[in-house]
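During the second half of the funding period, the structural biology subgroup turned its attention to how the target accommodates small molecules. The most pressing case was magnesium ion, which had performed well in the primary screen but for which no bound structure existed. We therefore specified the complex as follows and requested a full 3D prediction, including the ligand pose.
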Amino acid sequence: MRIGHGYDAHRLKKGRKCILCGVEIPSDFGPDGHSDADVPLHALMDAMLGALALGDIGKLFPDTDEKWHMADSAELLRIVYKSVCSHGYALSNADITIILQLPRLAPYIDQMRARIAEVLEVDVSRISVKATTEERMGFTGDGTGIAAVAVVLLVDVRTLK
Ligand code: MG
């Protein structure tokens, strides 16, 4: 088994789409960035890459490369997980926490879980998405930004046989 941890944070900007875990959330502002800035998916990819010591998404998809401009993070996640599988591992489970003050994410959590499960082609019971605020403290609390952390457990597929 291999465990991995990922963290990401982006500035929130008025007029940007708010795409979290591949789901568009109705909002006047969203994470700013080179790609679609899907913060929780960035954390999830870094957790997967970290578990296998394969570097990070900045190394795989550099923001200096126009190819990744406005990239769909769900597509990037598919690429990262394909790499995980090609190394002989499969996802046991992932646990993601999104940290922001607004908008409230509770109504969208199950949609986010389903979207990730669909991209990875795994059962939704393997995917946990949670959301929390930091009670108006710090950059997530005052609406400056959004952060996410992710932990994944990967299993060697040979042990599954
Ligand atoms: Mg990012």
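Two results from this model are relevant to the next phase. DSSP finds five helices and seven strands in the chain. Residues 8, 10, 33, 42 surround magnesium ion (CB under 6 Å).
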